[in-house]
Amino acid sequence: MVNNPDNMVVDFVGGAVAHRFKFGGGRGQALPKAVGMKSGVTPNIVDATAGLGRDAFLLASLGAQVTLIERSDQMHDLLADGMARARLAGGEVAEVIARMILLHGDAKDLIPDLLPEVVLVDPMHPPRKNSALVKKEMRIIREIVGTDQDSTELMQVALDCTSKRVVLKWPQKADPMTGIRAPSHQISGKSTRYDVFMIG
């Protein structure tokens, strides 16, 4: 990953994604648990805010069919390029990519027609007061996609249209998202927590 957004590359074959693919904690990790992956249960998932595609790739690597939605033209193109290169690489990585479908558009418009079992929402958060704490990579992504001012509306669409659960990826110490109901439960990671909203 480099400083210039114009030179940014999405890489599913090497780097951090490849390391997590080989040495990650399987379904015992916080995200797979949050979306309801367990023995014998592999839900169909919509990643409503695809970004770099890393969460989607993790879930697909564990067997899930994942639909990625990205509305930023530039980020969508970066994802499409990364997925194409991963297909060409063949092997296990290509098998994972085959379980990922990338859509370009606004998730609020697309989710109702997808009839998802699970929706993952990971909004781009406003910058923290101490910008030195924000990873360089995240600053570059924010330059590309901006801040998601409509994340509450997206969550409400997801809650209205999802059959099993909605998972909100949120900073560990942040207050709950306002304007929506309280989560059913939370699963915490190191710097991130997953607010889980069970449906029905």
Strand ordering within the main sheet? 3-2-1-4-5-7-6
Strand content: 15-25%
| CATH architecture annotation name | 3-Layer(aba) Sandwich
Class from helix and strand fractions: alpha/beta
The N- to C-terminal Cα distance equals 41 Å
Q: Per CATH, what is the topology?
A: Rossmann fold
By CATH, the superfamily comes out as Vaccinia Virus protein VP39
Individual helix count: 8
Which consecutive residue ranges, at least 5 long each, have pLDDT under 50?
none
Helical residue percent band: 25-40%
User: Regarding CATH, which class?
Assistant: Alpha Beta
User: What is the rounded Rg?
Assistant: 16 Å
Mean pLDDT: 86
Helix/strand order, N-terminal first:
HHEHEHHEHEHHEEE
Number of strands: 7
* Biggest pleated-sheet summary: 7 strands, mixed
Q: What count of structural domains?
A: 1
Shape: globular
Set out the fold topology.
Elements: H1 15-23, H2 30-34, E1 45-47, H3 54-61, E2 66-70, H4 73-89, H5 91-97, E3 100-104, H6 107-114, E4 118-121, H7 136-145, H8 151-161, E5 165-171, E6 185-188, E7 192-198
Parallel strand pairs: 1-2, 1-4, 2-3, 4-5
Antiparallel strand pairs: 5-7, 6-7
Helix pairs in contact: 4-5, 6-8
Description:
By secondary structure, this protein is α/β, with parallel strands linked by helices. It has helices spanning 15-23, 30-34, 54-61, 73-89, 91-97, 107-114, 136-145, 151-161, and strands at residues 45-47, 66-70, 100-104, 118-121, 165-171, 185-188, 192-198. The chain has a single domain, classed as 3-Layer(aba) Sandwich (Rossmann fold), CATH 3.40.50. The protein has 8 helices and 7 strands; from the N terminus they run ααβαβααβαβααβββ. It has a 7-stranded mixed beta sheet, sandwiched between helices. α4 (73-89) packs across α5 (91-97) and α6 runs parallel beside α8 (151-161). The relative contact order is 0.16. The model has no long low-confidence stretch (mean pLDDT 86).
